[in-house]
């Protein structure tokens, strides 16, 4: 179990548009929530949605079958792996998360600071 269901930051019934709208309304850097991924893919069960610098980033959370762990974004060597989605959130509340904007080819970073609830 990913450890998401009882968490304030988990928006169980939320789709991508609802998540993005809620984050734009919050309008605070470091606002975030976790939603189910649109594709319902077991390899990528969740998406971390983060607001920073007037932009919303949708970061896939991958499930690594071989180690039963979770990681963010595309697979890369030396990536951080976590035993639960909750651990990813706790880690990035203290350690900056790198946000990559592939359209403008820029990198930013922020910590997960403000839990956004989707109403």
UniProtKB/TrEMBL annotation:
Database matches in CDD domains: SH2_BLNK_SLP-76
Gene Ontology CC terms, in alphabetical order: cytoplasm
Protein keywords: SH2 domain
Residue span(s) of domain SH2: 9-116
Domain of life: Eukaryota
Any GO BP annotation: cell surface receptor protein tyrosine kinase signaling pathway
Protein's name in the database: BLNK protein
Species annotation: Piprites chloris
Gene: Blnk
């Amino acid at each position: 179990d990913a450890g998401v269901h009882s968490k304030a930051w988990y928006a169980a019934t939320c789709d991508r548009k609802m998540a993005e709208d809620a984050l734009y309304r919050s309008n605070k850097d470091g606002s975030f929530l976790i939603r189910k991924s649109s594709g319902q893919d077991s390899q990528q069960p969740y998406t971390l949605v983060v607001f920073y610098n007037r932009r919303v980033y949708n970061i896939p959370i991958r499930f690594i079958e071989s180690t039963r762990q979770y990681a963010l974004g595309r697979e890369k060597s030396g990536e951080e792996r976590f035993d639960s989605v909750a651990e990813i959130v706790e880690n990035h509340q203290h350690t900056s998360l790198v946000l990559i904007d592939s359209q403008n080819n820029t990198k930013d970073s922020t910590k997960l600071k403000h839990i956004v609830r989707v109403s």
